[in-house]
């Protein structure tokens, strides 16, 4: 079992993340090790635990042989701290450092990852969990982070270095032949109440998940508390999505990915002994997020996902597009006045699912009748379907919108909005 390292929390000021080459034993011990990239000697990078509303600084030092930049996924931070080369900052060149500072406004489960040639750097391991602690944490015995990813690993344990194979870019994207869940703690007792914070850090894979040996609820999605906890069936995470569960341990715990081909074990959690102190109490919702209340939409925009292998005329690096525009255009897709509520129809006119991510904001998924659904920063739109979202654009700056299937993002499915 791979244990996630924990970075002594925000007390250390500034926090330090060193981007560097790391070696991991992903395959069984008797087989080869895997040369990867990571932070502070580990992959995934160390778990950062921050306090809501508390200003922190994180020094990122680049000890790679190429440039990088770090994005704090899902955090509603100042635009110049968003970590997007060209749009919000210059690259951190080899040997250089950059200090990011922000005060995370919302409690919840987030993550950080490279945002430079991210299809390759994230696939090589440049990602880690970022937890913003609740003001009043729920009553649980353990708070365990679960990071999911997958990789194409050769027989000798080395990572395949074909991250941009055109066939996969034009289809579902880079898909690993090996997937794992890394847990911050690998042992619990029967009867314990546990919060699991699950993060899909894979570059392209959608994880349909089953968690065995537990009874409980989903309490948050993409960091944002649900108004009412929800059942554990249909637990599906697109790349970059998160789900927080609060569950009682009822037996041997395992995380499995299920598919038509059957079930694939991602991690086991050892259960030893039993917790007899805990009284069975209903699982309460987490504190409601404090986000701006949407007004009547002043713009209704449509962003149509186009392209792919079945999509016709795009080719090369321009396989995918939004509204027929591939890659980052010079002009924003839309301009918003700060505070404006905007409705966006995300229409998937392709033969593949896409997980669409907006930087710097959360948005509501809208039900067919227009009522407010879940708050998300990444929404999964199935092939041929469309989803409306509603967003209060209250964070000034230049914000990316892209498919978080990172093969599709490098294939051209990205654009940006300007909020002034
Ligand atoms: Cu998770 Cu543009 O990023
Ligand atoms: Cu996509």
UniProtKB/TrEMBL annotation:
Top-level taxon of the source organism: Bacteria
Keywords, ordered alphabetically: Metal-binding, Oxidoreductase
Keyword hit for Oxidoreductase: yes
Pfam families in UniProt: Cu-oxidase (PF00394), Cu-oxidase_2 (PF07731), Cu-oxidase_3 (PF07732)
InterPro entries, sorted: Cu-oxidase-like_N, Cu-oxidase_2nd, Cu-oxidase_C, Cu-oxidase_fam, Cu_oxidase_Cu_BS, Cupredoxin
Domain Plastocyanin-like: 30-135, 180-253, 320-419
Protein name in the entry: Multicopper oxidase, type 3
